[in-house]
Design brief:
- This protein is an alpha+beta fold.
- Helices cover 38% and strands 17% of the residues.
- The chain has 20 helices and 16 strands.
- The strands form four sheets. It has a six-stranded mixed β-sheet with strand order 9-15-14-12-10-11. The protein has a five-stranded mixed β-sheet with strand order 5-6-7-2-13, covered by helices on one side. A three-stranded antiparallel β-sheet has the order 1-4-3, with helices on both faces.
- α14 packs across α17.
- The chain is globular, with a radius of gyration of 26 Å.
Amino acid sequence: MFSPKSISDEAENSFTELEQKISVALSAVTGTGQSSIRKHTSFYRLGLDSLSAVSFSRKLQEAGCGRLAVSTILRHSSIAQLAAVIPPMINGDQPEQVEVHQPTTVFDETFIHQVEGEFSAAAASVQKIYPCTPLQEAMLAAESGDHSAYFNHLLLLVRTDAEAMRDAWAQMMQRHEILRTCFTQTNDKRFAYAQVVLDSSALPWSHIGTSTDNQLENVIKTSKSKFEGLSPVNGQFPYSLTFVTDAGAQKTHLLLSIHHALYDGEGIAQLLNEVQRSLSSQKLPDTTPFHRFIDYMTSVDYGSYDEYWDHYLSGVSPTLIPTHSTDMDASASQQFHTTLNGSFGFFKQQCKDLSVTPLNIFHAAWARLLSLYTDSPDVTFGNVFSCRTVPIDGADRIVGPCFNTLPIRIKSSSIATNSDIMKLSQMSNSDILPHQLSPLRRIQRRVLGDGSRLFDTLLIFQNGNVDLDPQVWELLQDEGNMGFPLICEIIPDETEDKIQICLHFQSSHISQTIAETIAAHFVALVEHITQYPSAQASDKRPLGADIPKVFEQKVSSRTNAVSFLTKVRQTRPWSTQEEAVRDILCQISDVDSDDVSQDTTIFQLGLDSINAVQISAKLRGLGYKIASGEILEVRT
């Protein structure tokens, strides 16, 4: 006679052929013995996350299960659930999987010839012109102000000679088109910037000799300042390599200054890995050109994403940080560092026990912090998606900025527990994955309609440190400006077995003292969530009595977009200046001039802050000096 328990155990251990294939693939990716994997074991309990799910998807495809989207795997996070959604194979044949790959042609011939002519005049040959990704556009547009943003400086202590290092980087330049890329503005409403790939060009390299530590510091400081003073949209490569030989100390340093429009964390890790492999005469991996990602991106119908975002963000109130200083120096990014208590290994085990990823816990802690600071159960912040889960073979090897920043909204009830908040984060992340290429500017334009922002804070979870060969070099500094008022960067350190937390903040919005308080509160909330998953999320006790007033929530009223424009009657004649402005707006928005009045806002024309940069450039070409920020302020 069998008890219900033994029947349950038998069912749990009895795998179909398809479930067995899934189990084998899961075991290979997570390193878990098959005997420990049951039909209903959560993938998250085994340590699976969005990146390892890419490998899992590949293993499943090799096993004949078809190509499954990462979002499908994460939303059906057990063998039983996943097996139920895999379509049956006909006669055992694997369905044909075709990667979307079409040549990118979005710009007209006139623009292409114009760009080719401009670079030809500078003795440069254009290989290809591509549109930029949404995040590239946002970062390039941010440079239109008086303060540079989105740059980074890597200072490395180098244990090889200048000639070998230069040769290795020259090889990288020929291997990776992103290192032969310049940027230029367009008149295109959808793609405000283009990236121009050159056939070949001189490596932006300089070799400087010093004799004292003071000279070394001055050379590095001067090189950084010079780089930050250059616009990334000036027809030159927005990166530089400065090799500094210190004769006195017999040390050599390499300063890599690079704009974020050229790289993301995974791309720079791949690039540095290839440089050191080249220096060690190792075989280099096959390349996946960045334009494959651009081709896929431009094949996507953004309109199909609109319904999701309209529903997800319906009734949202942006979570913002008011400015308390107009000093331009105060917009420069400062940093505060701390660490989580306990080891990284112990934290990963806590995640498995809770059946969540590390990112889910950090998102839950940040959402709770925002909620407790604003006294609101509905908060929004930014999350960086790697976008390397798209169906492109070799996406993990792309040297280029594939990442994208999108809103995460955590809307909970007054009785929600820590576990509820973690599950909301988990659900949001997996649900957004199919829409991860959405342009943030399009989302904000549709949801808010008035040129405002959805969030002022960003949470970044780094997948790990760059694995540098100590025989080749050592990273001494990694600094830059990331262009957001407040960024919480989580940096796991496998070597030291700890988790570092770096708060990047602008003193125009947040003081050093408040940044330290925020960091301490965040650490306390992470620990509270992992130790007491059933505790109330609204519990303020982990923060103590000192909760600073940092954030504000703006109740926005959505304005009508271009589809609601109607024929208008003019109450007075147009001035020459008004006609000039109107013609530029109509050209960029593709709206008939009869539908535009003197009181029409740029937002009613479907334009936004990035288009304001285009408008500003056009007006400057007519002799009018006006910044994009001023255009956003006056609007009509």
